[in-house]
Each structure stands twice: as C-alpha cells, then as structure tokens.
Design goal:
Helices cover 30% and strands 25% of the residues. With 220 residues, the chain is an alpha/beta fold. It has a 7-stranded mixed beta sheet, with helices on both faces.
Length: 220
C-alpha cells in the first residue's frame, strides 16, 4: 500500500458517513429511501424527526429486516418498470445508489412522480475527480477497490459537473451542496481546528478534494 492509499483509507470520522443527509430532513413528514438496505438510515429518520418512512431495495433479505424499522418497505429493482402505492413524498433519498446503476438519470426521472410539487431529492454520490483518483491515474493506475470511490461494484462515475447536468435533465434545481473529504494526516486529524480547515478548503475546491457530494435538489 502506497502513502496515498494509507492516507485515503484512514477514514475515522462522521464526515464520511452518509447520515450527513439527516441534516436536510428536519421538516419532512414523508420520506422515501431508495436503496434503503436494512433500514438503518430510515430508522434514524423516524426516531429523530417522527417522519413516515418508506424504503425500497433490490434485496429481499434487506427488506425483511427493514420492515421491522420502517413504516413500509418493498423489494424493487429501480432499473425496471415499477409502481408504488405510496406517492406525494416530501423527499426522496438516493444515498450511495446512483453509482451502482446502469442508467441513473432514468432512475431519477422514474421517481419524480413520487415527489410532491415543491418537494426535493437528496443524494450522496462519490467524486471520481478526487485527488486520490487523479494521483492514481497520473501514476497509470486504475484498479477497483473493495470500498470507496473506486468500489468494485460501481458502474457509473461522477464529477460535480456531471451531477449538475444529470439533476437538471431530471427536472431538478440544485439548492444545496455539501461535501465529505478524505484528508487524514497523523497527529493533526483529530484536531477540530485542522478538520475545520480541511472542510473549508474542500468547499473552496470541491472538485479536487471532495470524496463525496451530498446534494439537495428541488423539483420544479
């Protein structure tokens, strides 16, 4: 493992957690979690905000678990045609799912009929233009990995520019953008001042430093 990989893999803090999405769900009464897995995030949403949460996932095993924690949960393959009984959601969540799909734009479009007028989507998606990937490419290296931006299960890769284009084409207007980062330097990384500084420079140069984008987009 080279130095870049050592730094990249030293991810210990909540900035990397998809649950940063919770920051944008305070006033949402009805939530649809696409790719809900076993319902962990949906359960936290219900506990924190008292929201009604419906989850869908391609895994029947995950849905059996999710049913214990969510109001409703269904097995759905989002890349095929489907219909949900539930509609008029305040927000639809796509947390680390779009990069696993062959046609993420079509997927988002399918869900627009489930977003109430004025509602929005929240998505988290890895940034392939991150410094770590750029460094690997500079060194002539592009190997898939067990997790992270180059996760071996990722089918599509995104930059911030391509995310903006995809959401605009889906009829959504971006309102907020947040980022997570993966700069971890021994002796400094536990310092709140250092972490605040890294968060600031990541916002200033998100295309280079962001590990992941968390985007809020309104239906118009």
């Amino acid at each position: 493992m080279n130095k870049a990989e050592e730094i990249y893999n030293a991810q210990k803090y909540t900035e990397f957690d998809n649950f940063i999405i919770l920051n944008y769900l305070k006033n949402c009464q009805k939530v649809l979690d696409v790719g809900c897995s076993s319902g962990k995030m949906g359960s936290l949403i219900k506990q924190r905000f008292g929201s009604y949460v419906c989850g869908i996932d391609i895994s029947a095993k995950n849905i059996e678990i999710a049913k214990k924690y969510l109001d409703k949960a269904f097995v759905v393959d989002v890349e095929k045609e489907f219909n949900l009984d539930e509609k008029e959601f305040d927000v639809v969540i796509f947390a680390d799912i779009l990069e696993h799909l062959y046609n993420p734009l079509d997927c988002i479009k399918k869900f627009m009929k489930y977003v109430k007028p004025g509602g929005y989507v929240v998505l988290s998606i890895p940034n392939v233009a991150n410094w770590y990937v750029r460094l690997k490419l500079l060194l002539g290296d592009f190997d898939y990995e067990s997790s992270g931006i180059l996760d071996e299960t990722h089918i599509r890769f995104f930059t911030f520019k391509s995310i903006v284009k995809m959401l605009n084409n889906a009829g959504l207007k971006i309102e907020k953008v947040n980022t997570t980062y993966n700069i971890n330097i021994p002796l400094f990384s536990r310092s709140s001042i250092f972490r605040s500084f890294v968060a600031l420079i990541t916002r200033l140069n998100k295309n280079l430093l962001a590990r992941q984008f968390v985007v809020v987009a309104r239906r118009y």
